[in-house]
Amino acid sequence: AGESGAGLEIRRTDVLSAWQGFRPLASDPNAPPGAPVSRDHVISRNPDTGITFITGGKWTTYREMAEDVIDRVVRSDEGLTEKAGPCITQNIKLRGGEGYTRNLPIQLVQQFGVSDGVAE
């Protein structure tokens, strides 16, 4: 058991799920010597192999990271530039996003009796 900041005891049965991950911080190869590591993502291309790499970034920006790296790859190859259209990732709903409206939190409160904070 643990304790929340509000002095409430948190029991194992109160926790529905948990996960953790590792976020590698990236050193920008184009940054000046001694520059701090970045919390942003860094895209680089190996000039010998032509392989494009992406490092760093955050879980919350993975779609932006994917768009950035694909755009970079497409721009680096004239054949791909001719075939590829504009990126559409912003218009693709995330899993679970079907049926989402701005009123969903209100519906959850009314239908299931959850608090506003949980519904949000």
| Count of helical stretches | 4
The gyration radius over C-alpha positions equals: 21 Å
> How far from one another are the termini?
26 Å
Proportion in β-strands = 5-15%
Shape: flat
Mean pLDDT across the residues is 83
Structure description:
This protein is an alpha+beta fold and 120 residues long. The chain contains four helices and four strands; from the N terminus they run ββββαααα. A two-stranded antiparallel ribbon has the order 1-2. β1 and β2 (9-10) form a beta hairpin. The protein is flat and about 60 Å long. The mean pLDDT is 83.
Descriptive terms for the model:
single chain; alpha+beta; 4 helices; 28% helix
Short description:
The chain is of the alpha+beta class.
Secondary-structure topology with pairs:
Layout: E1 2-3, E2 9-10, E3 41-45, E4 52-56, H1 62-75, H2 78-83, H3 104-112, H4 116-119
Antiparallel strand pairs: 1-2, 3-4
